[in-house]
Structure formats: C-alpha cells, structure tokens
Amino acid sequence: MTHPVTVGIEIHQQLDTCKLFCSCRSQLVEEEGSQFRRRLRPTQSEMGEIDRAALAQAERRMHFTYQAPKGVSCLVEADEEPPHDADAEAMQTVLTVSTMLKASIMDEVHFMRKIVIDGSNTSGFQRTALVAVDGTVDINGKNIGILSVCLEEDAARKVETKDREVTYRLDRLGIPLIEIATAPDMHDPEDVKEVAQRLGSILRSTRKVKRGLGTIREDINISIPGGARVEIKGAQDLGLIPTYIRNEMERQSSLIEIKRMLNERGAKPVTVAARDISDLLKSSKSKVIVSALSKGGKVFCAPLPLFAGTMRSADLRLRLGAEMAQHARSRGVAGIFHSDELPAYGITADEVQMIRKELALGDMDAFALCADQADRAKPALLAALARANQALVGVPEETRDPLPDGTSVYSRPLPGAGRMYPETDVRPIIIEPERLMTIASNLPELPEARTTRLVREYGINEQQSRQLVREGYDDIFEEVAKDKGMAAVAARTFLSTYPELQKEGADLDGLTGTTVKEAFSALLSGKFAKEALPSVLRELAKGSSVEGAVSSLGLAAIDQGEAERIVDAMIHERADFVNEKGMGSVGPLMGVAMKELRGKIDGKEAADLLKRRIEAFLKA
pLDDT at position 302, please? Predict the structure, then answer.
C-alpha cells in the first residue's frame, strides 16, 4: 500500500543528572567564563570515508570561540582531559525507559564517536551509545516500532554568529541526552504529534528529565512517494509537528513537479562556470549590487538553460530559486537573485535584458546572480547551481532547520554512515541481568495508570486527566491539587488559562513550578480571589513576584466589612433602579459589582453578598 507520507521521529530529551562524562552541574548559566578558540576539520572514518555533511561544514571555513563558565564546564568539555566514566544515574534512566518501551537491551554498552564539525562539540565529534533496540509504543491502537534507544551528550550552546566566527557556551555541552528513534511507521501528521506526546509522557514519568524550552527536541524524518528522506532537525514545538510535515510534503511535491518539467524540456546539468558581470552592472541602482561593488566585491552570474518558470512560478507553488538561495546562504552570502523574480530589488527591466543578451539566453532559459566579496559570491553561486542540478533528479536528501512559522530551511546534506567510529576513551558498561530484573520490578507509573489515578484521587474527568498527562502538567497539577478545593481550579488553569496566555504572547517559560506553586499558595491563603489567578499568572510570566503581581493589579484581598461598604455604595448610587426592579436588579448589577470586587473576593461570595445587600436595602 502506498502512503501519501512516511514519517519517523527522533526524540532527544535532556536528563536531569550531572553531566555525562564529568561531575559538572548540567545547568545553563549567563556567565561567559574564560574563552578559547578552535578550528575543526573533518577526519576519515575507520573505513576511510569522509562524511558528506562534515565535508560541507568544513567548506564554510568557520572559526569557533568557546565560553567556559566555571562549575558547569571543565577540562573535559574543553577536550583537554579524557572523559570520565559515563554517569551511572543517566544510564539507569535510559535503561528504565528502554524497559518501559519493551526494547531489547544490549549486554554491553559501547560509546561511539560521531563526527560533528559545526563547532557545537570542541572535540569535533559527539559521543553516543546504543543502549537498546526493537521496542514499541502504542498510540491510537497502532503499534509504532522503536528502532533504537541511545544515550549521548548534548552539544554546546550557540551564543552568537558574526561573519565566519561562531561563539558557543560550554554549559550545555555534555548534558546527558536520551535519544529515542521510532521506525518509519507513521503516515498521518497528527499521529506523529501523538507519538511525540506519548514518548514525552513516558520520559517524564521517570522524574529524571529536565523541563522547559530547549530540554526536549524532535528530529522529524519525512518522505513522500517519489521524494526522498529529509530530516527537519531540532523542532521544539509539538503543536507545529503536523505543520512541518504538511509543508515538507508540499515542498517535495513541488520539487517532483519541477523535475518532471525539466525532464520534459530536456534540460541538462548546468556546466557553465560563473561569469563576472560586474562591469555590466556597474551603474546599477540596486542596493545589494551597489554595496558589493563599493566594497571591492564582484557580481557573478550563470545561465540556467530551460529553467524558466521553475525558479518561482506565478502561483508561488514552484520555488526552486528559494532552494538555491538557501544553499548559497550556507556559503555566507545574503542570497541570490534569479530571473523569475526580476526586474525587482532595484534591478531594472533593461538590466535584465542586458544580462540575458550577455548570456545569449532564450525565452525558456533562466539565470541566477550573486553579489558579494569575490571569495564568497562565486562559491555561493556555484552552490546554488549545484542545487539547481539536483532538481533534475528530484528531491535531495538533506537536513533542514525548523522555522517558527512551520516551514524549514536547508542546513546541510543528510549525514551518512561514514561519520561513526569507536570511542576509545570511555570504558564499556556491562549490563547485568540482575540489574534489569530490578529495574523491571520498580518501573515508574505508566501514563495510562497515572491518568486513571488522577481521576480517582482528585475528582477531575478522564479527558482532563489524559490531557494533563499528555501535556506534561500532571506533576505540577498534583502538587497544587493536594490542597482542598484546588483540583478543579488547577485543572482549569493548566488546560485553559495556559493556552489563553500563550495565545496572548505570554512567555510560559517564566511560569516555573516554584512560582506557580507560590501563586496557588497565595490564592489558598486568601491573598486574592481565584478569578484573578489568570491575571496573576500573566504578571508572573513577565518576571514579577506573586506579591508584586497582587500589588500592581490592586488585588489585595478585603474583609467582609469592606466588601459590604463597596456594594452598599454601589446600590445607593443606583437606588432608583433598585427600587424599580427590586430583586430583578441583582443580575444587571452583578457586572458592576464584579468590576469593583474582581480578584478581591470570590465570585460566588460577591454574588451572595450583592443579593443580601439588595434584600436589606429593599427592606429598609
């Protein structure tokens, strides 16, 4: 059976332990610490191969500066000292998750080196170990295979990129990661999101994983019939996973259509070298060209025979030019211009005709040009032309970076097997059968069992419980819901208020477990009413304290006497209306009362108070 899309994912979750190969804290900090610089070069695998992704990265000729803050990095992260034995707690967590996934665990765990020379690892490689294979996870009645469960070290944190210099901070380098790779068993974008959520629930059930933005990332491997495997690497928003998949399906479909068009036209690979047309455009008013030429740069151009209309179609469905520009940017330029989008960007119709005449182009021919320093513009244009040639054979295998709008951009070629070789500095770990038996008899509570228990113990409905577990709010919910009467408020807060705040643009990362518990504690002690909780949380997300939020919002709780005085004053101001409507005035005046009392006393108390004071007023 042919499916419209085939998807597999890799979950990378940070573990809340010490670093993997030293005793440093696994914590992100703001200090820069001492600095040092490195250049990294690709090396051959044990089979004598050089990985294509590493080679592409080396061609960018980048320099790397590393910040090494004390306490969260040491000589191990600087690659000046051999790694210590792998952290035992991290390994225990991975073995626990592997058992929960019914995977076959290795008798011996050996670490490997995976070549990575984008600067994110000071050594030029990442250490990773295969721990288990052949597991399974159930979602919506479907068994999704788990190909592998690995333990590896996280990469350094990118701080800044300037020209050909990238600055990394070593606080994140070496934090343990568990990597769970599924089989390509998913064919519905929504199922992929469900699988990611399910695996996230299993990981959180160990109580040994970090929480918050950046602590869990997903790599999405996508292909369609006639296309190729493309990896969208490092997605962090689970809600966007279906969007990334659908957009990639559309992108691959358009590339398949471009291939068909080019083949029907008889297009051949572009072999003409980039031509210097700087003199031709020396009088151009285009800001990009003027800027390049004024700095001693060059304008290089190349023909694309029979490519007209594929670079950017009128309906924007075909956009090979955007693909070419992304490859050009990987060589350090801002982008390229191509004939399907010109005249534009200050390049006139007359200049377009001059270029077409210079290159002797026909109606079905296109061209691309790049303006920058000569040592950048020419390699960038050649990279764009290489991408154009790939269009003749279809969809290239590649790694892409996710964007916040659900689209992705080219990053590098898809890595091959040639980047792996044995790690000789880390001792193998023997996994004894007795250890696995102990783990199997002490497994954490599974998500479905936790869902059932939350319903039983806190009186919430099953849908709420399932959603709390799936979204990862079950831990904080339990801590808050232990207090009498707080379960319903807590469930509503995490499942309704949080999404509303997120839609407003609030940064939910500011709502740490500690601050949220402080807010609920203040609510329980009567410092403000539950109707004000969303407003308080909104202020906490901005960095305010609970006391500061209550003060700035004017929510200080008032006693019964003060509340009665406020309500009585409101009633006397509308005495004629109250006398005319009698008890029928309660409903219309409730909004006015809540405007005065919201957040200061409970809503039900306010309604009861208004009713009592109107009754007293009418009897007086």
Answer: 96
Q: CA torsion 325→331→332→337, rounded to 10°?
A: -30
H/E stretch holding 490 reads helix 487-492
Residues of the chain with pLDDT under 50: none
| Contact present, 609 and 569 (Cβ < 8 Å) | no
Give the containing element (helix H, strand E) for 520: helix 513-524
**What's the rounded Cα separation, in Å, for the pair 89 and 434?**
17
Q: What is the pLDDT at residue 57? A: 56
Closest listed residue to residue 295, CA positions, set 377, 385, 384 = 377
Rounded CA-CA distance 433/356 in Å is 73
- H helices of 35-160, in order, are 52-58, 88-100
Quick one: which of 388, 394, 310, 293 has its CA closest to 346? 293
d(CA 475, CA 205) in angstroms, rounded, equals 9
pTM score over 0.90? no
CA dihedral 149, 151, 153, 159 (to 10 degrees): 30
Distance of alpha carbon 48 from alpha carbon 138, whole angstroms? 41
- Specify the pLDDT at position 605: 65
SS3 call for 161? strand
For the chain, the structural domain boundaries read 6-262, 268-391, 447-552, 560-619
pLDDT computed for residue 573 by the predictor: 75
For helices 586-597 and 560-573, what crossing angle results, to 10°? 130
pLDDT at 14: 97
Tell me if 389 sits within 8 A of 270, measured CB to CB: yes
C-alpha to C-alpha distance for 586 and 120, rounded to whole angstroms:
65
Nearest to 230 by CA among 456, 408, 423: 408
Beta-strand relationship, 398-402 and 230-235: parallel
Among 274, 179, 258, 266, residue whose Cα is nearest residue 219: 179
CA torsion sign for 604, 606, 612, 614 is negative
Give the separation between CA 338 and CA 325, rounded to whole angstroms: 9
* Class of the CATH-defined domain 268-391: alpha beta
Q: Which residues pair with 149 in a beta bridge?
A: 132, 180
pLDDT single digits (tens) 556-568: 555 566 666 776 7
Instruction: For residue range 158-175, list pLDDT tens digits in order.
Output: 999 887 789 999 999 999
Q: Which residues contact 484 (CB under 8 A, 6 or more apart)?
A: none
Residue 578 CB: number of other CB atoms within 10 A?
A: 22
Q: Looking at residue 373, what is its pLDDT?
A: 94
Q: Do 155 and 53 meet the contact criterion of CB atoms below 8 Å apart?
A: no
Half-sphere exposure of 271 (CA within 13 A, CB side): 3
Rounded Cα gap, residues 97 and 135, in angstroms: 10
pLDDT for res 601? 60
Q: Collapse the DSSP code of 421 into the 3-class scheme (helix H, G, I; strand E, B; otherwise coil) and give the result.
A: strand
